[in-house]
Amino acid sequence: MIQESGLRHFDRDFEYDDLEIGDFINTFDGGVGMMQLTNPVPDYPNLHWSWHANVAEGLVCLNSKVTEAENWMSRQRAEALEDVGYRDYGPDSEPEVNENVIGAGEAKPVPTTTESGVTFGDAEDADHRPEDAVAIKHYNGSSRPGGGTGFYWKWIEEVRDEHQHIVAPGYWDLCNRSNIRLADGTYDNYVEDVCSHVP
Question: Taking the model in full, what pTM does it have?
Fold first, then answer.
């Protein structure tokens, strides 16, 4: 909520009749209130004027994004397992078994990423699972596969030639940028923005 609205539901720069109450926060993309509810279009007037209802609906939305992130990563991990199994690759890009890194029957682990001091990954020293970063980005409206910026992590399948020799090994592809282009030409990283509020 800090990233979405600064913990404010009402705008302070607006007078409603004689009361010193602002209008509900409504952004350029139609986001409403503390949780910046956008899609589906928030019910008016309840989710616009009641911050209690707005937060409750926002939590429902966030929980659905967590479920979708879990399902997405489950499919990606299954693809990685089918593609790579427990192989790892040496400096010459040749497959090798490295059971210290990848246990037999496990997919190649998701690499560790750090966003504003918060670490996501499959490694034991990571603060959070990769699924958490996927859910955070998805709350901001990451596109479904096939369009836009996509989810935070995606498994890219290995490439084989006509003789079934591996030309390029499969790998985890990180896409932590959002659709919002900043003034300097770079793209916003919503996961990093959210993590910057973690004490």
Answer: 0.70
